[in-house]
Amino acid sequence: MTTEQLLKDYAAYNLWANRRIVEWLRRAPQEWLLQETPSSFPTVYHTVVHIWGAEKVWIERLNEEPPVAFLSEYFDGTAEEAFEGWLACSARFSELLAGQDAAYFSARATYLRYEKRYSEIRAQMILHCLQHSTYHRGQLVTMGRALGLSDPPSTDYIAFARLNSD
């Protein structure tokens, strides 16, 4: 498997895993999603918005679009709106990569972050973003369990790969 194909596959996996987590979180009472729970972010809701915002900003950076405010600075929708936005963004990420050739992944993208200019290889940017989402999905499982939500879904990459093997 080439790096190009692996990253395309990993973006499809990210969408699959995010869908499974959202389906699981939808079983929770709304107030649980807003209840403070120790983690990187104070609530499940804030963690979801953070993951969505990060995926959104990395898409913008990959496309070398001008920086905009981070999603958490202005989004104040419901948990359901956050779930829908997150899944739509993950689908957009997967679709973006699916349409690219090998040269796209090895090329550099230049972007601004807090007035500092960066130029990084797209494959590394993509891997960072998707690993970031995986890290925070793990936190969502821990937070959900602490709040009383049982039976989290398996979101292991190998489970996805087994479902999609020929």
**Count of helices?**
7
Question: Domains counted in the coordinates: how many?
Answer: 1
Largest sheet: 2 strands, antiparallel
What kind of oligomer do you see? Answer: single chain
Q: Can you count the beta strands? A: 2
Give, in spatial order, the strands making up the sheet with the most strands.
Answer: 1-2
- How is the CATH topology named? Four Helix Bundle (Hemerythrin (Met), subunit A)
Radius of gyration: 16 Å
Task: Specify the CATH architecture.
Answer: Up-down Bundle
| Helix proportion range | 55-70%
Beta-strand share of residues: 5-15%
Termini gap: 14 Å
Class derived from helix and strand content: mainly alpha
Any low-confidence stretches, pLDDT <50, length ≥5?
Answer: none
- Mean pLDDT over the full residue set: 96
CATH class: Mainly Alpha
Q: What would you call the shape?
A: globular
One letter per element, helices H and strands E, the order comes to HHHHHEEHH
CATH superfamily: dinb family like domain
Structure description:
With 166 residues, the protein is mainly alpha-helical. Helices cover 63% and strands 7% of the residues. The protein has a two-stranded antiparallel ribbon with strand order 1-2. Strand 1 and strand 2 form a beta hairpin. Helix 1 packs antiparallel against helix 4. The protein is globular and about 45 Å long.
Helix and strand layout, with pairings?
Layout: H1 3-25, H2 30-33, H3 44-62, H4 79-98, H5 102-106, E1 108-113, E2 116-121, H6 122-147, H7 157-163
Antiparallel strand pairs: 1-2
